[in-house]
Design goal:
The chain has about 725 residues and is mainly β. Among the domains are: about 1-135, Arc Repressor Mutant, subunit A; about 420-710, 6 Propeller (Neuraminidase), CATH 2.120.10.30.
Length: about 725
């Protein structure tokens, strides 16, 4: 996390100043002023190298960009901050949050826009992403912090369903008389499409397949329903509105939407949690046409039927014409970030601001967004001439719940989902790479239980939970069921890891506002914690003798992010794995500590590519010895002959086993499925740092999130 103070011309990382000369800082400031936009070389020259300045412009600009990348730990080949567009210019691609100064004439953010885990502490730094930038605007700098979003609109609410399970993703017919939705109310463990009259009609079951059928959308005449089905490899189907035989019309597609004239169907194709390509296909049949080839999802038709709005993950909303012309960035997400909205990773379907409806009146977009403690429905307008965001976000729903998946009728009725999500820790019995029983729930409360770590014998577990109002480390004896909070400090405590024998626990403490990471150790039975590492942001694994811990470090003075051995007694750190180009992230040791699996940001996968490496007595930089694997969160079996892997090879994050050659540790044969998590009701927590898995001799523990909900309707009073 970096902080830029424009008034003081300072770049800081976790409270420490990063040296950056004046000219590179001015270039950085100009790029930060327009995040996500291309700043041309000509504009940079006119602004910072005027005609009466006698320098060699190309050489000076290239050197300035190089110094910025060095300061940020960035790479031109795999950029996380500054992207080069050949012969055009540069674009700042990391998330940017812009804050008001702590003193002065601008309004400071109100407390409810901050991370609730911060409590009443200083909120000057807000957590966005590990690669994020916080900009503090000083006096005389552009007034980026504007008033908070306005209050709720006058809408009358009616509850349409009252199911105990998951009923969500409503679609209103154009005349507003019918609502279709996905529900598991049949009690068969999957989602089906249901239809009922508004507001009190009896529900009619439209689909009956054993796979999940969801994401319904009415045709303009109200006679047919498009939906996504996970049957037969997944795809888009169409079915008569009141029931009939579904017909597959698109392979692999998601979130289908009819155009307003009914001639086209828009959808996207890709894994559930990342990536995606945007397509349209004629509703009467014919070849599909790709409009956007990567990082595009959640298509919404414009009122003119000639444009589509879509979202890029962790970036912005864009408008693309149906005829395939250039896309236009709207600037919506940048504005929402400045108003305190979150785009957190942990529960993307609930926390990311997805466009859901494009209303003709006011050219406004209805979306679901997290602001403060609630995730609700909002609307915001786009200019019909430039597609740029205009005005301020306006709240449509009030309350501390989770509201989303909105749909509208032609007359302005809005149906939406009211949801409750609850992450807990679960266990799967395993033997020799196969499931040996059913999933068992290990924690069961209304708060977030995440980041499980289990001892080798499967008797003791630690995890993080916000049961006390902030994230602290908890322990659980899996034989007796006894739970207790191990720690309680003013700081956020995360990512606990237990030693193989279950006696010791290491965890990360994050202090605000300087965003300082430290690793502490504490006995499983409790007692005083001991600080064992500064500037270490994750404890990955204890050594078998408990004298060392594999830790992750990112200190600009030591180069790119890397893995190191930490001596628990002396605090001495020895680099184990570092690469000059690719940041190295989390690692996992084989039981004999001769091998390690690890993640490296090579740019080919959202959560990093995972490799296996023989451990040496010296730091490794070359990638020649890296053995590639398929998946993420790669963990070793207790005999070191298997890897347990989370892979999305079937479109869902599921648990697999990969057999290894006993000597070379190279993968042998394909991934073998152990357990599938295809249910929308209960799925794997997306953020890899929070979900596990953690492996014991007889079980695998993992964090799953349960989702329940019902359908409501909003109408103007």
């Amino acid at each position: 996390m970096f902080e830029v103070d424009l008034s003081a011309a300072e770049l800081n990382k976790r409270g420490r100043k990063v040296v950056l000369q004046d000219q590179p800082f001015q270039v950085l400031a100009l790029l930060l002023n327009r995040p996500g936009e291309v700043v041309s070389r000509e504009e940079l020259q006119q602004t910072l190298w005027p005609s009466d300045t006698f320098v060699e412009f190309d050489q000076s600009l290239n050197k300035a960009i190089q110094k910025i990348r060095q300061a940020l730990g960035d790479s031109p080949d795999h950029p996380r901050f500054i992207e080069t567009l050949p012969r055009k210019g540069y674009r700042f691609i990391a998330p940017v949050e812009q804050l008001a100064p702590e003193a002065g004439s601008f309004e400071s953010p109100t407390p409810d826009s901050a991370d609730p885990d911060m409590g009443s502490r200083n909120r000057r730094l807000l957590w966005m992403l590990a690669t994020g930038i916080v900009v503090v605007a000083g006096a005389g700098v552009a007034r980026w912090w504007l008033p908070r979003p306005s209050g709720t609109s006058g809408l009358a609410l009616t509850q349409l369903t009252t199911d105990p399970g998951l009923t969500y993703q409503p679609a209103l017919s154009p005349d507003g008389k019918l609502v279709a939705y996905a529900s598991d109310r049949a009690g068969e463990g999957n989602l089906d499409i249901w239809v009922q009259q508004v507001p009190r009609g009896a529900p009619i079951r439209v689909t009956h397949d054993g796979s999940d059928d969801h994401e319904p959308s009415f045709s303009p005449d109200g006679r047919s329903i498009l939906f996504r089905s996970d049957r037969a490899g997944g795809g888009i189907y169409v079915v008569p509105a009141l029931g009939g035989e579904p017909r597959k019309i698109v392979e692999e597609g998601r979130q289908p939407r009819f155009s307003r004239d009914g001639n086209w169907i828009a959808y996207w194709v890709g894994p559930q949690h990342h990536g995606g390509a945007l397509y349209v296909t004629p509703s009467a049949g014919g070849p599909a046409r790709q409009l956007v080839k990567e990082d595009a999802r959640s298509p919404v038709w414009a009122p003119d039927g000639k444009h589509l709005l879509y979202r890029r993950i962790l970036r912005d909303w864009y408008v693309v014409p149906l005829d395939g012309g250039p896309t236009v960035q709207t600037g919506v997400v940048d504005l929402l970030l400045r108003r305190g909205f979150s785009i957190g990773l942990e529960f993307p379907q609930l926390f990311r601001p997805d466009p859901e409806i494009w209303m003709a009146e006011g050219n406004s977009i209805v979306f679901s967004g997290k602001n403060g403690d609630s995730t609700g429905l909002w609307k915001i307008s786009l200019s019909p001439d430039t597609w740029q965001v205009t005005g301020e976000p306006e709240r449509l729903t009030a309350g501390a719940g989770v509201y989303g998946y909105a749909s509208a009728s032609a007359a302005g009725r809005i149906a939406f989902s009211s949801l409750v999500r609850n992450p807990d820790i679960w266990s799967l019995p395993v033997h020799a790479g196969h499931a040996a029983g059913e999933m068992q729930q290990l924690t069961n409360d209304a708060d977030d239980d995440l980041s499980p770590s289990v001892s080798a014998d499967g008797k003791y577990m630690v995890f993080e939970s916000n049961r006390s109002g902030k994230r602290v480390v908890w322990s659980k004896d899996l034989d007796t069921g006894k739970e207790k909070a191990l720690t309680d400090t003013p700081s956020s405590e995360n990512l606990p890891v237990i030693s193989a024998d279950g006696s010791e626990v290491a965890y990360v403490v994050t202090s605000w506002p300087d965003y300082d990471y430290k690793i502490y150790a504490i006995a499983f039975e409790g007692g005083p914690p001991k600080k064992i590492c500064d500037m270490c942001d994750q404890a990955c694994q204890w050594s078998s003798d408990k004298n060392r811990i594999l830790v992750h470090r990112y200190d600009e003075k030591e180069g790119p992010p890397h893995l190191a051995w930490l001596d628990v007694r002396t605090g001495q750190k020895v680099k184990l794995l570092q690469h000059p180009k690719y940041p190295i992230w989390v690692g996992s040791l084989s039981p004999d500590e001769r091998w390690m699996s690890f993640a490296a940001s090579t740019g080919r996968a959202e959560h990093g590519d995972w490799f296996i490496l023989p451990l040496l007595d010296r730091a490794v930089t070359s990638e020649r010895a890296w053995i590639p694997t398929d998946g993420v969160q790669v963990q070793w079996s207790t005999d070191a002959n298997l890897l347990y892997i989370i892979s999305e090879q079937d479109g869902f994050p599921c648990l697999y086993a990969q057999r290894l050659d006993a000597q070379t540790k190279r993968p042998t044969g394909p991934l073998q499925p152990i357990h599938h998590f295809h249910s929308a009701r209960r799925s794997v927590v997306e953020d890899p740092a929070w979900r596990g898995p953690s492996v014991a001799r007889d079980k695998i523990v993992i964090a799953l999130v349960e989702l329940t909900g019902n359908i409501w309707m909003a109408e103007p009073q």
